[in-house]
Amino acid sequence: MSSFDVTIIGSGPGGYVAAIRCAQLGFKTAIIEKSAVGGTCLNIGCIPSKALLDSSEHYHNAVTDFSAHGIEIQKPKINFAQMIKRKAEVVDANVKGVEFLMSKNKVEVFRGTGSFKDATHVTVTAEDGSTQEIESKNIIIATGSYSTELPFAKTDKERIITSTEALELKEIPKHLIVIGGGVIGLELGSVYLRLGSEVTVIEFMDRTIPGMDAALSREITKVLKKQGMKFNLSTKVTAISRKGKKVTVKAEDKKGTELSFEGDYVLVSVGRKPYTDGLGLENAGVETDERGRIKTNAQLQTNVSNIYAIGDVIAGPMLAHKASEEGVLVAEYLAGQKPHIDYNLIPGVVYTWPEVAGVGQTEEQLKDAGKKYKTGTFPYRALGRARASMDLDGFVKILADEETDEVLGVHIIGARAADIIAEAVVAMEFRASAEDISRICHAHPTFTEAVKEAALDATGKRAIHS
Fold first, then answer.
1. Which of 117, 146, 185, 302 has a CA-to-CA distance to 389 between 20 and 30 Å?
2. What CATH number has the domain spanning 160-270?
3. Span 434-447, mean pLDDT?
């Protein structure tokens, strides 16, 4: 039997980062993975979806914007098979990169499904049914999550699909019906909208991306409508049926009026659930909450002292970068260090175009808490850089404490928001005031100037260019 200091079950961004950090700290480390290393993010999530988003954005720009830039080409054609092939190549390169890192850091990789025999022993069941047992002083559960299904309409993986199948389609849908106006629904809806699909989003809540600041929700809905995406908010799906290549969705609006939608594909993106099935948690005595998430303390330790859990299987936003930070925290805690994560400062991003990003408190959260705050905003269309690149949609919004001026939240919609938000995270990690940001020299012309201008607007309405 192989023995290790630390064994990680699951090799996604939480698991493989935890493994690397454990190895760096001198622990004999193993990782268990039932399929390709990298988990959902690298294989059927973050990376392949961004590859298709980039490809579809190139096509969209060629069709809509090139002529304005003085670039005249014949109407471009879509080679969808090549687009999917390139996506697969991107995934493969990333998976090989993680495999290299495992080898470089001397992390032993076990292929198969891991399940607890008891608190210190894990059984690994290979695809051929063979098993082997691992003994480990400490175990980290990093098994991620899977797409939630509607109880009255199971996915068939052909026409009624999840995000996994949406990344592997053989054709561009004529009419894609998206159930769920969250991050996944808007991103994959954007991919096929750009490629020529009619896209209809049905959302139960009264707005899209409900976890983000309401101003961002309003703006992205407006911009995507302008691009051609259709929205049915405050609408409850009641049934999905399929006949051949036609899929019908029945729904009710907030007034109780019955609605019907017909398309050739339905993407169900109504959330994700922690993947704990088959882990044998009961054999180790690990407790879960009412939503099936593994209970942990501040050190991400379960009720069983040598077992930890990170990422999508515990409470909090289901984000790859959150999982990675948690993997590092557990590794360093096991090494006797005193790591810390400020969960308020984990940014969220939607990779539509324009991109949407936010960190800290939303305006709605501040209102609910009775917190006195001030707001500064600045529109992208007032930026020289945005005009030069024809990226005029969006704004930066800064929320600061009314008395101390400390920045409490930053919310951005616009070109490169996913990258710009890091400036806000750094500032807030050091508890910067809006005035601090307003006094930092930003290069001109850049999109980041909008952050400075929004900070100026928050400190006495002193924005220069609006």
1. 185
2. 3.50.50.60
3. 98
Q: Look at the alpha carbons of 320, 321, 323, 324 in this order and tell me if their dihedral is positive or negative.
A: positive
Sign, CA dihedral 206-209-213-216, equals negative
Name the nearest CA neighbour of 199 among 208, 186, 211: 186
pLDDT in tens, 85-97: 999 999 999 999 9
CATH class of 345-458: alpha beta
Question: In degrees, to the nearest 5, what angle opens at C-alpha 435 toward C-alphas 431 and 441?
Answer: 100
Positions marked active-site: 444
Q: Are strands 198-202 and 175-179 parallel, antiparallel or unpaired?
A: parallel
CA angle, 249 then 253 then 256, to 5° = 110
- Per DSSP, helices labelled H in 228-319 are 281-284
What one-letter code names the amino acid at 69? H
- How confident is the model over 37-56, as a mean pLDDT? 96
**Entry field: residues in the chain:** 466
Distances (CA, A) of 384 to 80, 223, 342, 380, 445: 35, 20, 35, 9, 6
Beta bridge partners of 32: 9, 110
Q: Find the Cα–Cα–Cα–Cα dihedral 189, 192, 196, 202, rounded to 10°.
A: -30
Q: Report phi then psi at 96, rounded to 5.
A: -65, -35
Q: Which two tokens stand for residue 292?
A: 């099936």
